[in-house]
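Module 6 notes. Inverse folding takes a fixed backbone as the condition and produces residue identities as the prediction. Think of it as a translation problem where the source language is geometry and the target language is the twenty amino acids. Below is one complete input and output pair. Work through it position by position during the lab.
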């Protein structure tokens, strides 16, 4: 029997509550589909940082490399200054484990939960491939004359040919394999950011010749946000850089029904990948058993697809879809008509 080792970081706020439901679904899926899992918990997050002043020990990176996949709840604590945990844990994991793709499916399960008028599930069903290791997130830059009237703050977007090419290749191959229309859109800003996006566009056009079965096009990032609202049905797979990908996927989460349902994967195709609900720690709802666990459950489905359990992944997604359609009053925390644990139970029962 196949067996998978999964590192679990429940993290902060509502992270542990949604992780629990994700693991519940994993447990049931593993029995149904005949595979084994071994999970190991790690306590990285705000609470640990406040106690120890340590975000992530260096040894953790080597430790995580021994796993088949990672499952993350949320990182972020109201008592910790913004940036410390994000950079020290989440971004550090993405960078040091070279999870250079951030894969974010945008799928509407039920039109009742779409804030856009007259959009149906078939209209909102695409995927954003976000570069996850470079760009503005590289953290390059400097202050000049800090604190003076002449202060200058420089923040550099760092793009390498290798980094851009591996991301684009992943996107082309993902489109070949999963794209409904076999259509890949490059989302950038070639009209203003003429260094970075020249490299991206040149590389994109070169690769397009190798992937002749993929239809390609280009949109500026500002226009992309407009199309997300006006004509989301135009998209199949979108590839973009780290910063633009961060921004457009929050908008994507909203048109698919909100953070309660939005999942993502930080992927190293040749290493260990980490799956997470993209919503954050939601301190307001912590401990109340009202947060929506479906994003975490969908992240678990993505994890299973990545390790090779496509059938189990598909069944979890189908179960989630059914629950959303037939049971839930709303996808927002506290408004679902069910508690966090009850929603997890419903998904399990429907598998
Ligand atoms: C995300 C988050 C992170 C990001 C933050 C928490 C650093 O917004 O996963 O989209 O900017 O990538
Ligand atoms: Mn974000």
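Target side of the pair, the amino acids:
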């Amino acid at each position: 029997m196949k067996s998978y080792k999964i590192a679990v970081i429940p993290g902060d706020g509502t992270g542990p509550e949604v992780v629990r439901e994700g693991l519940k679904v994993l447990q049931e899926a593993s029995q149904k589909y005949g595979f084994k899992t071994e999970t190991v918990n790690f306590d990285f997050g705000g609470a640990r940082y406040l106690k120890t002043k340590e975000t992530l020990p260096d040894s953790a990176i080597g430790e995580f490399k021994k796993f088949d996949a990672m499952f993350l709840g949320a990182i972020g604590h109201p008592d910790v200054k913004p940036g410390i945990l994000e950079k020290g844990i989440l971004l550090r994991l993405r960078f040091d484990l070279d999870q250079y793709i951030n894969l974010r499916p945008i799928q509407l399960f039920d039109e009742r939960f779409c804030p856009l008028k007259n959009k149906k599930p078939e209209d909102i069903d695409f995927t954003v491939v976000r570069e996850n290791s470079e760009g503005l997130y590289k953290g390059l830059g400097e202050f000049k004359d800090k604190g003076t009237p002449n202060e200058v703050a420089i923040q550099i977007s760092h793009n390498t040919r290798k980094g851009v090419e591996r991301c684009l290749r992943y996107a082309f191959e993902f489109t070949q394999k999963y794209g409904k229309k076999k259509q890949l859109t490059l989302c950038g800003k070639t009209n203003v950011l003429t260094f970075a996006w020249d490299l991206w566009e040149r590389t994109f056009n070169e690769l397009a010749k190798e992937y002749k079965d993929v239809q390609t096009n280009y949109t500026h990032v500002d226009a992309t946000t407009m199309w997300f609202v006006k004509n989301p049905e135009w998209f199949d797979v979108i590839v973009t850089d780290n910063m633009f990908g961060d921004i457009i996927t929050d908008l994507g989460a909203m048109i698919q029904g909100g953070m309660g349902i939005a999942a993502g994967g930080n992927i190293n195709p040749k290493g260990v990948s980490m799956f997470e609900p993209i919503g954050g720690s939601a301190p307001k709802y912590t401990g109340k058993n009202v947060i929506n666990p479906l994003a975490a459950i969908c992240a678990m489905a993505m994890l299973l697809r990545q390790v090779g359990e496509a059938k189990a992944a598909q069944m979890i997604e189908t179960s989630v879809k059914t629950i959303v359609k037939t049971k839930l009053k709303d996808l927002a925390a506290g408004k679902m008509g069910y508690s966090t644990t009850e929603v997890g139970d419903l998904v399990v029962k429907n598998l």
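Reference fact for the lab report: The pocket of 3-isopropylmalic acid (ligand 1) is lined by residues 86, 90-91, 246, 278 (CB under 6 Å).
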